[in-house]
Amino acid sequence: MPPKKFSISAVLEYNAELLEAFIQMIETVIDSIEIDENIRFFLKIAINELVVNAIEHGYNKLGGPVSVYLLRLSDSIVLEVSDSGIGIHPELLNLEKVIQGMDDLTIRGWGLSILKKVSSSFMIRPNEPNGTIISMTMQV
After folding, report:
1. Considering Cα of 80, then 82, then 86, then 87, what sign does the dihedral take?
2. Cis peptide before 129 (omega within 30 of 0)
3. Architecture of the CATH domain 4-139
4. Residue ranges per domain, the chain?
5. pTM summary value
6. Where does the pLDDT of residue 106 fall: very low under 50, low under 70, confident under 90, or very high at 90 and above?
7. DSSP 8-state class, residue 54
């Protein structure tokens, strides 16, 4: 299978309808490149988490440009979400969280940890000159 590449960008606001419309566009692409229902499910969860995080944290809910890149290879799918926001310091994140009890389930902040666990490759890096790029790979 030859690689299939998709790139979708938009200037987004912290608005549920706009975020949902952008995410649904990307989900349509996911549906067109992967037949496995479980892989599609995890990719859609990842898209939702990463796009919403870009607006909430990268732009402090003020909105800004977000880009999504998908690369379908014969044995994997690479997903990359980038923003030009305030950036993130990966060393300050605890991506190795473990649930200790029921109270842990009531707090936010599990999304990136879960994505790291379900992906075969997960990387957070700066988007020069500003912002963050989060890349993950799912084996298919």
Report:
1. positive
2. yes
3. 2-Layer Sandwich (3.30)
4. 4-139
5. 0.88
6. low
7. I
